Amino acid sequence: MIKLFNHELSGNSYKVRLMLSLLGLEYEVVDIDLKAGEAKSPWLLKMNPLGQIPILMDGDLVISDSHAILVYLARRYGNEDWLPVEAVSMSKVIEWLSISANEIQNGPCTARLYFVFNAKIDLDLAQQRAHEVLKVIDKYLQQQDWLVLNRPTIADIACYPYIGLAPEGGISLEAYPNVVAWINRIKGLTGYIGMPGL
Fold first, then answer.
1. 167 to each of 107, 140, 160, 198, how far by Cα in Å?
2. What is the CATH number of the domain that holds 115?
3. Which one of 14, 23, 128, 178 is least enclosed by Cβ atoms within 10 Å?
4. In sequence order, what are the beta bridge partners of 4?
5. How many domains in the chain?
6. What is the mean pLDDT of residues 86-92?
7. Structure confidence by residue, pLDDT tens digits, 133-155
C-alpha cells in the first residue's frame, strides 16, 4: 500500500495527491502537523533528514521531494504520456520541473507562504517574481494547451498548484488569460481532485 505523509494546505503535497488520483492509485494519507513541528520529529527525520514533506512510502521504498515523487509515480505506475523516456522529450519535461522548483517556488509559492503560513518573507519581491514568471508562462501558453509535448505531463502537475493558488498570495490571475485557460484544462482531467484554494 502506498502511504503519503502530507499536509492538506501544502501545494507540494497536493501535487502528489493529484498525481496519485490521476493515475487511479489507492493510497493512505498520514497528515503531518507542520505548526506543531511534527515534520522535525525523529521518526520523520529518519525518512527525510531535511524535515520536509511530502514523503511517499511504497512498500519499503521511501521517496521525498514532490518532483522526485512525481517522476517515480509516472515511471512506476504511469505510461510514457506522463514522463517520456526519449531524451529530448524527457528533457523538456524536466525543464519545467526546474521552473517549478525555482521561479514558481520563489514567486507565487513564497507569496502565498506570507498569507497562509505567516512566513517572514519579502512579499513585494515574491509578488514581483510571481508576475515575471506568470507573464512568461502566459505568453508560452498562447501557442499551446499544455506546457510541453501537446499533452498533460508531470510538468503541468508540478507547476499547477502554486500557479492556481497564486491569488492566495495576493496575485491576481486576471491579466493571464492563457494561464487561466490552462488551469481550467487541468481541472477537466479525468481523476482531477482539488484542495482548499483550488
1. 12, 21, 13, 10
2. 1.20.1050.10
3. 128
4. 29, 56
5. 2
6. 97
7. 999 999 999 999 999 999 999 99
